[in-house]
Specification:
Helices cover about 30% and strands about 20% of the residues. It is α+β, with helices and mostly antiparallel strands. Strands 1-2-3-5-4 form a 5-stranded antiparallel β-sheet, with helices on one face. A hairpin with a 6-residue loop joins strand 2 and strand 3. The termini are far apart. One of its GO terms (molecular function) is protein serine/threonine kinase activity. This is Protein kinase domain-containing protein. It holds the Pfam family Pkinase. It comes from Caulochytrium protostelioides.
């Protein structure tokens, strides 16, 4: 139990380098389902711990600035214990990656309509972020959540952009390699020309590149290149 017994963690949904996400249920009626992102407090030196805690809190601060917005995962509240920080978030039925890979939902029964429905909402979410000076930097199908999946066409799915752990307010970045490699813009790659030359990249433009790759995923169900590397002719062509 969590939050003074008001939340019951039911199962782990996923984990990453800095956090674990659980499915939770309110113990009181109407027993609403929620997602709980657990950010364990670091067990490192005091200086490193302070920097990491600031990094963890940043996601909550950015979400509070962006919400409410219908296409961004809603942050209900945060909790802090001696061992961890918790983000209590809106829970969604699925993510875009599962829909593309499994192809077993009605979302794919009408692919043209589905592409428009999903992608236009995703653009609205990213545009809202950019208008507030926030750049996501980890746009990928796994971070595009889908809610209200229909049992039959027509498609009326709701898109929710999630996971702002790598988001930044900097208009120019030098932390190359930040994000998921298959969706990174060429100039943001750690082994790209800009990094090699000691330059920088613009995270707003990098987000737009990632959106384009996601659209390719939606329309084709795959990536157009095996590796995001100039030696891959398909990647080099883009």
């Amino acid at each position: 139990l969590l939050d003074g017994g008001r939340l019951r963690l039911t199962k782990m949904l996923g984990s990453g380098a800095f956090a674990v996400v659980y499915l939770a249920e309110e113990t009181a009626a109407p027993h609403r389902k929620l997602a709980v992102k657990c950010l364990p407090k670091p067990t490192v030196s005091a200086t490193e711990a302070a920097a990491l805690l600031q990094f963890q809190r940043r996601e909550a601060v950015l979400l509070q600035r962006l919400c409410p917005q219908p296409n961004i995962t809603h942050l209900y509240r945060t909790l802090t214990t001696r061992d961890a920080m918790f983000l209590i978030l809106e829970w969604c039925d699925a993510d875009l990656f599962d829909v593309i890979v499994k192809g077993d939902t009605p979302l794919l029964y009408a692919p043209d309509h589905a592409a428009r429905t999903v992608f236009l909402q995703l653009i609205d979410a990213v545009l809202h972020c950019h208008k507030h000076g926030i750049f996501h930097r980890d746009l990928k199908p796994e971070n595009v959540l889908l809610d209200d999946l229909p049992s039959l066409p027509p498609v009326r799915v709701a898109v929710k952009l999630s996971d702002f752990g790598l988001a930044t307010q900097a208009k120019r970045c030098k932390d190359f390699g930040c994000g998921s490699r298959h969706y990174m813009a060429p100039e943001a790659l750690a082994d790209g020309a800009a990094a090699t030359a000691g330059g920088h990249y613009h995270p707003a433009a990098a987000d737009v590149w990632s959106l384009g790759v996601i659209l390719i995923n939606i329309l084709t169900g795959k990536n157009l290149w095996l590796s995001p590397d100039p030696s891959d002719p398909h990647f080099a062509a883009w």
